[in-house]
Amino acid sequence: MKKIEFTGAALALFASGLLLAGCGNSSKANKMEPAEYYSYIENKSIEEGLKSTKSSISYEDGFSGDFDLKLSLLKEGKALIKTYMGAMAGSGAPTDMDWLDSVSVNGNVAVNKGAMSAKMSGSVNSAKINFDAVMNEESACLRVPELNKSFISLPSSFLGGMSGLDVGAVVKSYTDYLTSIPSYAEIASEVNKYKDAYLKYAKDVSKNTSNVTKSGSSQEFTVLTVNFEGENAEKMVKEILTLVKDDECIKKFLQSMENFQRTVNSYNSNAPFSYSKFAEGVESLLDDLDEYGLGDFSNFKMDVFVNSKDEICGRAFRLADTEMGSYVLTRDGKKFGFDLSANIGGSKMSIVGDGTCKGNLYTGEYTLSEGSNEIQKFTLENFDAGAAKKGILKGTLKFTPPQFAAYQVALDVNYGDSAAKYGLSVLQDSKKLATLDYNTKISKGSAIKLPSDAVKVEGEEDIQKYVKALKFDELNKIIKKVGMPKEYEDQLTGTVDGLSKQFAE
Length: 505
Fold this sequence. Notes:
- This protein is an alpha+beta fold.
- Helix content is 36%, strand content 37%.
- It contains 14 helices and 20 strands.
- The protein has a 20-stranded mixed sheet.
């Protein structure tokens, strides 16, 4: 799973660097003073970044999300499983999975203040079963329509059982948390507020030109070096920390997150996070700043690599002349080079690669390393830099896990503002063994109402009456549609028959 998380991060990091153009100095770079030009390109970069991340969905009014997750097992994958399972036959495992073609879950999850709903469908091959739920602070309405078309309405407190968990309070705090996610307008306001505070102190700027070569690809950049030293650096940090301390947007979001965590962990007096601890931490930093200053952090420099279209193609961060991290993307005709590195805990982590581009599409080979030790190689194919500038992440990532050298993993990503498609494939000798597809689509939410015809439960007798009416024979019909081996089918249907008799008593 960590490999998948890393590959997603690699896509995002690469996207941040793909603001490419020709070589040479910009006319604005020649006409403006260094500090003025730096302010211009930083404002331009942030403005374009905000445009690319502009969302049409406001979580404040709730949201509705459709999803579809499907695992498919292909012919070659079944043959491979049969080989391994055959070796385990002595343990009683099945010797093949020829009967299994796909497993899928799809549906809709909606959230609004104080209420949430889920309408889901799960299937194995052609056998399908559904589950519906609508919940608010007081009630939870549930049903499996194949077993009973009527919802059963339970007090939310009932679902907590012996755990003492107040499910109604969890629903409220969770929906409050989700609907407190800042809107695009709030995020833009926050970004610009901190950007303006920062740029007030970014006045010590020098400018030169440099020809930078990465992985054999060279490009000439305007290099702006921004210096933060002594009192100027301390004033900047102090102003930004003061803004954080008094930031109502941050406070609102973090307090809703804290409330949700406290509700879920109601039995644990030590919540993993609290806004008060966060605020105390900021206050402590401000006090230390007044008493001790920034120490080694009072000598900070940043190099900004700008191409001829006033686009930032890289940065390097130095603390007391020691480089702490950097990234640079160079382009030379149809070739490009990429270098990302960071010193973490005394160890240097890096991603280095190169490749070719055709229009806005980039394909390259990359290596993730720790010091001189290679951790993972991967390929990024058909990354769409034009789409990335519009907030759409498109590309295919491929890698071979070191511990499974015979296999290759391919991840296709098409991520936009309100919809996303992910496709994960496992291959052997270029033949697909299995695929995992996940699609989502988010839209504006609406009011969520409990079903008016739900069967209300007021005691154990009402529950028993509802359970006795469940159509367990329909569940067995669904099991038989799966097409699994007879011995496993008989075991499952036998278990269902046993439950049916137990609830009928």
